[in-house]
Amino acid sequence: MYPDVLCFIFTALPKTTLTVKPNPVFPGETVTLMCSVGSDSIWNYQWYKDRNDNVVSQSVRHTITGDTLTISRAAESDQGLYWCEGNRVSRPTSSQPSNAVSLKVKALPKTTLTVKPNPAYTGEKVTLMCSTRSDSSWIYQQYKDWNYNVVSQSVRHNITGDTLTISRAAESDQGWYWCEGNRVSRPTSSQPSNAVSLKVKALPKTTLTVKPNPAYTGEKVTLTCSTRSGSNWNYQWYKDWNYKVVTQSVRHTIRGETLTISRAAESDQGRYWCEGNRVSRPTSSQPSDPVTLTVKALPKTTLTVKPNPAYTGEKVTLTCSTRSGSNWNYQWYKDWNYKVVTQSVRHTIRGETLTISRAAESDQGRYWCEGNRVSRPTSSQPSDPVTLTVIALPTASVKIVTPQGLLYPGDRVTLQCDISDYTGWTYRWFRYNEELPIQTRKTITISLPDQAGQYQCVGRRRGRPQKSDHSFFLPIIITALPKTTLTVKPNPVFPGETVTLMCSVGSDSIWNYQWYKDRNDNVVSQSVRHTITGDTLTISRAAESDQGLYWCEGNRVSRPTSSQPSNAVSLKVKDYQPKTTLTSDKENVFTGDSVTLSCTVESSGWTFYWYRHRPDSTPVTTTSGYSYTLSWVSVSDGGQYWCRAGRGDPVYYTLYSDPVQINITGESKTVL
């Protein structure tokens, strides 16, 4: 029998697993290390780094909670080999150590800052560019000086992508600048760039000199701008505080460093300064200190003109005087085109006096004078202009007082001589350059047509001026009386007819008419057979006694009060009643044919009446023409036909024609 044997079986300790996230990690990130034992019991964990005796414990950046070690704000010192091990009260009291995991802490991407230009001058544009070598999609934060002063958008600071642009750099922009990148993906930030010191230098100083100062109006003034630093400067010139740029003009010339004002004026007075510009840096200088240019008014000159106004032919004296100083010589001007008045036959200059003998209308105008001398001021102000008025002799004019409008034969015309200026005139009248005797009044009366012609007048008086100019000739033109036209219808006329005589004047006014027969003293007046209405004379039941020459004449209240007599028209009254003649265009008429009857009578203006079977019957038809056509006749259309004519109101009829027989037979047959 064998003795009892005790057998020992050894079980391996539980396995421990370590996970590290994220790995690798960037400085500043949070790292989570998680330890787990494949057992359902509760474990406590011990953490190790690099060596067995280097236990990781709680700290400001290291937090151990349950199975997790959290490293916040990872640093390069956190890099190394990590492992963990489980412990507990019950058996097994420990686990196997986990596998060692190497935690790598990578440095953040490097950021580089470039500043151009550096140093910069005040007013220049400065560009600060931030770049990160790693990947893309970076957003940059710009800082100035060590107090982490964030540079933000402003009027002069513009941030676009990786670039900060400073427009118009100022001394306040000087300092230390650096930048840092940020983005959404890992790593979420870059290392801050190296700090770059931006230096902003003051622009070179500019000096302005002004000579002479003060200046007198009209003098030449020279303004010189100089910059101590460098060369090749061009200069910009300014006047007064509204930054009004002084540019080239008729009186302002800019050459190099000099602004020359020729013929200085009061408008040139003010504060001037200048500024240099060039191609190389610095491209501009500081503005110079402003210099006030004072422009003094030239001495005042006074002009007197006597007499003024003057009449043509008089002597005029113009005197120029200057209150300041002495030894002045004077220049004389007329009108605004600076026309210099010089010596001539009628113009004499002596000292301060210009004398015009025998003034003419061409001497009229605006005069002024100006003094000149050797010492400063070398000239005076021009005097205020004085308008010399040279009055022409009054002009006479002839006009028609009555009647107004056109002049007609038989008119008496009153002429008047008008002289608008002055009083006390006596008058002289001329017809065709011949003076009319004993005519000294303002008005004269002439009769037409005998005294028609061209009239002129002139005035004379005792005071100044003693006479007027002759008036223009006034032609007295006679207009023919309106033409009158007479029409007589009908003419010739037959006994018993009505005759209408119509008188018309080629004028738009209303006329009354006078009628004459055979003689001027034989006026046709109203009677039983003679009626006058407006422009019409109507003779009813004409008789041989009405035969003769007729004419008419218009009369009215307004001018012209009468017309010319009309043309004379001979009215003829026949001594018999006319008879019509009837004819047919066919002798043999067949049914279906047409036949035309013609009725003729002497004179014109007739209406034709057509009768069948009996002449005293009602007319078959009435026509304005002398023919009557029967179309598509039948046997019933046959018989005797008569015609007669009538005209006027009341109608005057001719005698009936002799009858014409119309025979109509059956349709004609054609023999083959």
From TrEMBL:
A GO-annotated cellular component: external side of plasma membrane
Answer whether the UniProt record assigns the keyword Magnesium to this protein.
Answer: no
Q: Tell me which UniProt keywords the record has, alphabetically.
A: Disulfide bond, Signal
A Pfam family found in this protein is: Ig_3
Q: Does the keyword Disulfide bond apply?
A: yes
Task: Name the GO terms of the biological process aspect.
Answer: cell surface receptor signaling pathway; immune response
Domain (Ig-like) spans 14-102, 109-197, 204-294, 299-389, 394-457, 482-570, 578-645
Listed name of the protein: Ig-like domain-containing protein
Organism name: Salmo trutta
Lineage summary: Eukaryota, Metazoa, Chordata, Craniata, Vertebrata
